[in-house]
Design brief:
Elements (H helix, E strand, L loop, with lengths): L1 E6 L7 H8 L5 E4 L8 E5 L2 E5 L11 E4 L4 E2 L1 H13 L6 E4 L3 E2 L2 H14 L11 H9 L6 H4 L2 H22 L10 H17 L3 E2 L1 H10 L4 E4 L25 H4 L5 H5 L2 E7 L2 E3 L8 E2 L16 H10 L12 E3 L1 E2 H11 L3 E5 L9 E10 L2 E3 L6 H6 L1 E8 L18 H14 L3 E5 L7 E3 L9
Parallel strand pairs: 1-10, 1-11, 2-5, 2-10, 5-7, 6-8, 7-9, 11-16, 15-17, 16-20
Antiparallel strand pairs: 3-4, 12-14, 13-14, 17-18, 17-19, 20-21
Helix pairs in contact: 3-4, 3-6, 6-7
This protein binds guanosine-5'-diphosphate, 6-O-phosphoryl inosine monophosphate and magnesium ion (MG).
């Protein structure tokens, strides 16, 4: 049995919390793409865990796997593992031999490219994600398996450093520093290789997962980022560099598409929108300097935006940047539902909107005088869309302890809002988040108990 958790919007939908919620039914939790650009929060019994790379399931003592589709920064990996150990956990983390390694020069190049791009910059997390995937596609990457073979690693490193040193100097005008020092990198990454070897962390991911399945184990795939920042299906070029959608799960793990398709695919939805990064955002409220395009946002709603941002704690987990906020965008969710084939929805942050007199959604767009119900394929056209809104009566704040009493305990107007989303997308509701904690979630279905 597999369950795949996917962000349906722009990231930070609360995927970590839902992975934790359903993690009880899983034996192995697998990340299939991305790297330490993710910031997943798990709150259990008042303790908060913020994880960038290690799969959230390790908080529940599950085996965590970083699949071949991931880009792995060993420094982050070991820092996170050690921090979890200090907090009394015993994380069991495996890394695919085929996953690509982030080296310090990737971060330098990430910064150089963003600065050079100016208005085209995506507002990346600066973690070197894009340059590492570029190296993968450019066949000059270094994989985890290569680290374990010193002569292979050395040869590839020498080529990559030489190549990137030229780019840094001649394209970005950056003075190459320690990040481009072959000898220092070789030694440091060999010590990472020693630890990977000693702790027997490196696996042939597809084979490892197939063996787990054959032994009757359940797998949970933990997507990072969200559908609207997927490299193919997102708001290119303001996207991340991997397939964040369910499509990424087979390619990023080495399991067959049918394995993922036969399982459950749960779309994680934030009850409004948040965005950390640049590019258009038709339902944006207010604006954030440095992220909202000059002609974007709606200054007349700045107060409301600040209220939602503060109520929802909308400040980046990784970078601390204030997140842009907006109303829920239904065309974005229709697009995500089609691309991913959601079998269920988890709608989070319903509590954040409580207390507003009314709650609005972007129901559809108007473009060139026509009504359209899904996202146009170019980001520029998306930015030209005007929003056809639909407004719902608001609901009063409620105590999160109603989670124990089920959905019927929610205020009626809140239920109307949830039903609208689920009906529009024709996807059943599996869970509703009404606070950050595991116990502050109303569970309607556990996907691990379905279709087994
Ligand atoms: P992820 O990247 O999708 O895992 O999400 P993040 O962890 O980056 O951001 C979600 C934030 O919202 C975290 O601080 C969570 O603890 C918190 N959160 C998750 N679900 C809810 C919810 O239903 N209500 C509230 N108020 N906070 C939530
Ligand atoms: P989680 O998993 C929100 C955004 C960045 C930037 C773009 C490219 O926590 O939901 P990158 O560093 O990946 O090259 O940046 O993608 N971004 C995220 N936004 N949540 C994330 O992860 C994100 N990971 C990357 O802000 O616009
Ligand atoms: Mg996040």
């Amino acid at each position: 049995m597999t369950v795949t958790i996917v962000g349906s919007q722009l990231g930070d939908e609360g995927k970590g919390g839902i992975v934790d919620l359903y993690g009880d039914g899983a034996d192995v939790v697998v990340r299939y793409q991305g790297g330490d650009n993710a910031g997943h929060t798990v709150v259990h019994q008042g303790t908060e865990y913020k994880l960038s790379l290690v799969p959230s399931g390790v908080v529940r003592g599950r085996t965590g796997v970083l699949g071949n589709g991931c880009v792995v920064n060993p420094t982050t990996l070991f820092e996170e593992i050690d921090a979890l150990k200090e907090r009394g956990l015993d994380p069991d983390v495996r890394v695919s031999a085929r996953a690509h390694v982030i080296l310090p020069y990737h971060r330098v190049l990430d910064g150089g490219e963003e600065a050079a791009k100016d208005d085209l910059a995506a507002g990346t997390t600066g973690r070197g994600i894009g340059p590492t995937y570029e190296d993968k596609a450019g066949r000059r990457g270094i994989r985890v398996g290569d680290l374990l073979d010193p002569s292979v690693f050395r040869t590839r490193l020498e080529y990559a450093v030489e190549h990137h040193r030229t780019v840094a100097e001649e394209v970005y005008g950056i003075e190459p520093g320690d990040a481009f020092d072959v000898e220092a990198l070789f030694e440091r990454y060999q010590s990472f290789a020693d630890r990977l070897r000693r702790e027997e962390m490196v696996v042939n991911c597809g084979e490892f997962l197939a063996e787990q399945r054959a032994a009757g184990k359940s797998l949970l795939f933990e997507g990072a980022q969200g559908t609207a920042i997927d490299i193919d299906h997102g708001i290119y070029p303001y996207v991340t560099s991997s397939n964040t959608t369910a499509t990424g799960a087979p390619a990023g793990t080495g399991l067959a598409p049918a394995v993922i398709g036969d399982g459950e695919i749960v779309g994680i939805v934030k009850a409004y929108l948040s965005r950390v990064g640049t590019g258009p955002l038709p339902t944006e409220l207010g604006s954030v300097d440095g992220q909202t395009p000059p002609d974007g946002g709606r200054p007349e709603h700045a107060e409301l935006a600040t209220w939602i941002r503060d109520e929802g704690g909308e400040y980046g987990t990784v970078t601390g940047r204030p997140r842009r906020v907006g109303w829920l965008d239904m065309p974005m969710l229709r697009h995500a539902t089609r691309v991913n084939g959601f079998t269920g929805l988890a709608i989070n942050h319903l509590d954040v909107l409580a207390g507003l007199d009314s709650v609005t959604v972007g129901h559809a767009y108007e473009l060139d005088g026509e009504t359209i119900e899904t996202m146009p394929p170019t980001t520029e056209r998306w930015g030209e869309c005007s929003v056809i809104e639909k407004t719902f009566d608001g609901w009063e704040p409620f105590d999160p302890s109603v989670a124990d009493d089920g959905i019927s305990a929610l205020p009626e107007n809140a239920r109307t809002y949830l039903e609208y989303i689920s009906d529009e997308l024709a996807v059943p509701l599996y869970a509703v988040g009404i606070g950050p904690g595991r116990s502050e979630t109303i569970v309607l279905e556990n996907p691990f108990e379905l279709s087994d």
